[in-house]
Amino acid sequence: MTSPTALTELDDAALRQRVIDCGGQPFQARQIAQWVYRHGVTDYDGMKNVPGALKNRLAAELSLRSSQVENADLAADGTEKLLVRLRDGQSVECVIIPDDARTTLCVSSQVGCPVGCVFCASGMFGVIRNLTVGEIVEQVLHAKARLKGDRRITNLVVMGMGEPMLNLPSLLPALRRLHDKDGIDMGARRITVSTSGYPRQMAEFAEADPSYNLAVSLHAADDELRRKLVPTAKHPVKDIVAAASSYFAHKGREVTFEVVLLAQVNDRPQDAEALVFALGAIPCTVNLIPWNPVEELASTGLRRPHVAAVDAFAESLRAGGLKVTVRRQRGADQSAACGQLRLRDLRERGDTAARC
Ligand code: SF4
After folding, report:
1. Can 93 be counted among the known catalytic residues?
2. Which atom of ligand 1 has the smallest separation from the CA of 114?
3. Do 330 and 264 share a structural domain?
4. Torsion on CA atoms 173, 178, 180, 184, rounded to nearest 10
5. Comparing C-alpha atoms, which of 223, 242, 239 is closest to residue 231?
6. Which residues in the chain land under pLDDT 70?
7. pLDDT, position 4
8. Residue 353 lies in a domain
9. Domain that holds residue 253
10. What distance in Å separates the CA atoms of residue 16 and residue 180, rounded to the nearest whole number?
11. Is 192 in the pocket of ligand 1 (CB under 6 A)?
């Protein structure tokens, strides 16, 4: 017997057909979807207005979810990192970041990551596989269930493990489901997808409806330096910037460029100058992210930049006419850097040799 498919993998039409096949009425598919996505029920019993016979038939074929939260690390500042166990035993991370009235959720798009940035724990063992539509959506459902009182997820960022542009066939339907007014109802303006720079896929993403925010992890404007930081980078910076510029022209949404700053690697005056030269002509914001040291990468000799160096870098960009934000550190006491919770899990399972 094959194991039941998770309901979160089905689009509206497929769920409607499944409900009809199980003896239900088409409108009941909408009711069921509302229970799952709006009310977050984890059991068919919680669907009060759905007949018992239909629930029993559906339950025999469709689980409501295919993943579960296996571990949660809560930092002193309220940042909570979840380790989500998937149906096939793989794991991903998502992070809930409360900040006054705002709560940002960072989700993963792949198991592992093929990009291999030298400063990131997520890319250490390559990519295992793409996440499915349901596995992306379920990260949001798991996070929603952990929020207390009136707190709700106000912003979603696809900046966790993986390269989202290499999983658009799952990501775009997942984002549509999260945006759906009858479901989680998350405004597209509150959803940001971050890429390390794939111009063709960025153009495809620009065709998505509705329009989401785009962030590009640039890290350096000089191609040679960038290739040292992002060894798999195939596209020249000028092509990535051109794709971001086209995104703005097409969508009217300013692109954010992210720069993870590493002491004496890409935080020097000439690195700031190169960014001003590369980005000065397009409407954008540069988000500076002082690197979080990662135990597993200690041998690389990479260091977090001094506050004074970050301030000076930001000032140089501003003097060059760029808008700049500096990300403050969150959840520093709980494996805050991307991918560390999963690495800990792999280590405990003796699985650190896992590669694609
Ligand atoms: S920083 Fe992002 S793109 Fe780079 S290896 Fe980590 S998860 Fe992948």
Report:
1. yes
2. 8
3. yes
4. 160
5. 223
6. 1-4, 330-341, 343-356
7. 55
8. no
9. 68-348
10. 16
11. no
